[in-house]
Amino acid sequence: MPYHERIEEELKRRRRLDRPAVVIALHSFTPTFKGVARPWHAALLYNRDPRLARRLLALLREEGLTVGDNEPYFVSDATDYTIPVHGERRGLLHALIEIRQDLVASDRNQHGWAIRLARLLPQAHAAIAAS
């Protein structure tokens, strides 16, 4: 609960200050599941509002990455909390980003993904704002 309470506080603070907010949840997934290799470098997950996830998915694929579209997982009210509660219920743009664990196992690779997402998330957001 401390995690979700902190998100709640920050989103309320941003609303009070009339500052925009976007909800990004970041997870990782195993390279293999039940002995089967997973081909995706990353995945973008969503439920009711795919706008941000699909824009980011396209940008990552333009970089030559294999990116799952709601796979290997998906977001639902029954299986998730952050996206349905903090994103969807507030009407905020949102996406759940999954990165394959072997691609973020080192500090160097984590930094690389951080730089990539810091570059691509504003592009995805701007494309939605312009449409």
Structural features:
131 residues, alpha/beta, Aminopeptidase, four-stranded mixed beta sheet, 4 helices, globular
Task: Write a brief structural summary.
This protein has a single domain (12-130), classed as Zn-dependent exopeptidases (Aminopeptidase, 3-Layer(aba) Sandwich). The protein has four helices and six strands.
Describe this entry's structure for a reader.
By secondary structure, the chain is α/β, with parallel strands linked by helices. The protein has a single domain (about 10-130), classed as 3-Layer(aba) Sandwich (Aminopeptidase). About 45% of the residues lie in helices and about 20% in strands. It has helices spanning about 1-15, 50-60, 80-90, 105-130; strands at about 25-30, 30-35, 35, 40-45, 65-70, 95-100. The strands form two sheets. Strands 1-6-4-5 form a four-stranded mixed beta sheet, with helices on both faces. A two-stranded antiparallel sheet has the order 2-3. Helix 2 (about 50-60) crosses helix 4 (about 105-130). It is globular, with a radius of gyration of 15 Å. The relative contact order is 0.20. The model has no long low-confidence stretch (mean pLDDT about 95).
Q: Indicate the percent of residues in helices.
A: 40-55%
The stretches of 5 or more residues where confidence is low (pLDDT under 50) are none
Averaging pLDDT over every residue, what do you get?
97
Number of domains: 1
> Could you say which structural class the secondary elements and strand pairing correspond to?
alpha/beta
Shape: globular
> Approximately how much beta-strand content do the residues carry?
15-25%
- The tally of helices reads 4
Biggest beta sheet summary:
4 strands, mixed
